[in-house]
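User: Please run a holo structure prediction.
Assistant: Happy to. Please share the sequence and the ligand.
User: Here you go; the ligand is zinc ion.
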Amino acid sequence: MQAMVLTKIGKPLQEQEIDLPVLKANELLVKIAVCGVCRTDLHVFDGELADPKLPLILGHEIVGHVEQMGSNVSQFKIGDLIGIPWLGHTCGKCFYCVSKQENLCDKAEFTGYTRNGGYAQYTAAEENYCFALPNKYDPVSMAPLLCAGLIGWRSYKLAGNFKRLGMYGFGVAAHILTQIACHQNKEVYAFTKDGDIKGQDFAKKIGAVWAGGSSQTPSIELDAAIIFAPVGDLVLTALKQLRKGGSIVCGGIHMSDIPPVPYKYLWGERIIRSVANLTRDDALEFMDIAKKIDLYVEAQAYPLAQANQALSDFKAGKTKGAAVLTV
Ligand SMILES: [Zn+2]
Ligand SMILES: [Zn+2]
């Protein structure tokens, strides 16, 4: 099969012809239709995340069809349309697994990081971590829902009880969440890079009540904020805008250092927390929402062989919405 392979950190992905994965009893062989490019892929590619499997096939927003099944597979059949997200395996036994926090499992495996992912024609995935997908979206729009959507949803839930939600870094996850927030009668305040007028117009178009640069301050207090940009300075920026008892959720897997926080800004029971990975329950809840609401997902398609171009365009902020590889 054709695959774009990361052989060494700092080197471009190599187009290679490699053997099909050998299936375990509980795995599916999936013929990939599309795979989204996530910011996490960039963090792996750039060596910002420790110990990736190498060589590695990146990609954890995989949409494809079941092509073959291991001998113990029971939930799917050949030809089913499924999604494969970031969480690829958990142990089922550790403290976290038995206390409904499998996202924090000590022995978790992650698609496109510690397991091979979707920048390829085929991949193998454990059936218990795959999801049936609604047929109503085209695959290019569907792919970003599998991480930007799912982990965005977990961030949204952990932001607690809010009416006024700020989102710092108005990218793929934020534009999906804005639509859900509007559907739930929340107010979204979109903070883009300073001067990104196009981004601010887009945020307003899809429902934000206010949009501006991250150094601007709307004349209200936020009940909660989600920070998607990997920029630690924004934690302090958001904290200054937050009401007492409000929460700040850092939604990315990697972030630059957070500057010293004067205690007066945290005082008043304000909370700063991160979101790590996702649970399968998060995914089921989100898929249910994606069935009920017609989510608009802005995405730009690239052929699989142009994965390096897609990564560099995405990093430079040149893609129109998400970048998605078509296989
Ligand atoms: Zn575990
Ligand atoms: Zn991701």
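Residues 90-91, 93-94, 96-97, 105-107 surround zinc ion (ligand 1) (CB under 6 Å).
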